[in-house]
Structure formats: structure tokens, C-alpha cells
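Have a think about this chain, C-alpha cells included, and walk me through the fold.
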Amino acid sequence: MHNIVDTLFQALWDNYLEVTPSAVKVHELLGSTQQNDVINDHIALRTFNHEKVGLEKLAAHFLAVGYKECGEYHFEAKKLYAKHYEHTDPTKPKVFISELLVEKCSQALQSVINKMVDEIDEAAITADNFLYSGTHWQVSHDTYQALLAESEYAAWMAAWGYRANHFTVSINYLSNFTTITDVNQNLKDAGFELNSAGGEVKGSPEVLLEQSSTLADHHSVLFSDGEFKIPSCFYEFALRYAKPDGELYTGFVAASADKIFESTNAR
């Protein structure tokens, strides 16, 4: 089972690197040359609350390899709902899956999303590679821009489809850094731009989780009307604190996650 989990995350990682080349530089900056201490805290995936491809359809791939549902989150302003999953082996990465509540969006957006989902072959959804299969449709750059005006989340999905939206360095395991501010400063000194929505550090020791993230790389997408560079994926950094029982907090903080979503905003 563990090998299956590792193989899945390796495939997700390889797919993520294709559009997030800066992640390699992050590893070089933060990792120790003596030990492989860049440990993945969690990944995040996006989808639509459409019956065909809802959150549960993505979660099924993880439940099948030993994950269990652990928490749910609501993002009213962004019209999103999410759950997170943890493996029975706590050393395996956590998984955060969100979905856009399509019925809360405009008729125009609903029409575009429904058309995209219609293009997906039912068999593809249960295929082993679905979580990193990208887009199953093609949209124009004009359509992307129209979606972007209403929902950055919908536009990102239209352009990138099914893939890890981000990976997350666990600061708890780094040997060269102990605080999130040191990690952030090191990234900025190396020329990385950080997501400053709600402050560079989201969360606090009081809520048992501190998070920060780079702004998404820009990568080319071949739309139906040409090739354009747009925000792709980003890298997150998480420092977890111990609960009163001494165990590290393993959940997520909705107020912080709300701002992390903005790492893929256009700039």
C-alpha cells in the first residue's frame, strides 16, 4: 500500500514540476545537502461540485490507498467547499481537496463549466492517472479571461485541469530553518515573490498552524486561440504546532487557506 501511495505522489510531483520549475530551486534553497529533509506536508487539488467530478470522485483515489476523511471547510466569498484527508501512516502527505459551488455562480460561468465537464470521458475519472491528467477540454483565452473576471478558481481549472495546485514544504522537518519568517526571508533573498494576501504569514501559533506561499509560476498554455503565459502552480510552506496532548496539529485553518488560494491570482 505504501508503495502505491509513494508512486501516486511521485506522479503528481512530476506533473507539478512540468509547470512549476521554480519548485526545484525551492528544494535547493531550503533542503540540507546532508539529508533529504524537504518533506511534503500536503498537496491541494481543485474540482467542481458537479456530480460527475465532485470532490468525492477525487477523494475516492486516496481512500482506495489508505486515506481517511478528517475535516471540512467552507469558503463563502469564494464559493468553495473543501475537505482534507490523512493517511493511516502519518508520515504520508495530507490531501486538501476543494470544489467550486458552481450553482452559486453566474449562468454564463455554469454553462462553460458544464460544457467542460461534459467533455470528460467517464472512464477517465476512475483511471489511475486522473488526479494528474490535466484538462479534458479546450477553451479559448477569451473564455479563460471571462471566467477570471468572476472566479480565479474556475479560470485556473479551465486552463490547468486536474493536477496538484500546490505542494507544501513541512518546516517542522527542515534542519536549516526553524521559523516561517526565516524561510520567507530566504525565499525573498533568492528573488521569490510571496503571496502577501492577509500578510506573508497566514495563521499563528495560537491556531497551531502558520503558512506562507510563493506566487504561482507563469507557464504557457495552449488555448484554442493561441498560446498564453498565465499563473500555474505554487509552493506552500507550513509550520505546525503541538496540541495540548503533545501531538502536532494536522488540520487546516479556513481563514488562512482562504488567502493561500490567492497564490494563483494574476499579477
Observations:
- The chain has a mean pLDDT of 95.
- The longest strand covers residues 40-48.
- The first helix runs from residue 2 to 19.
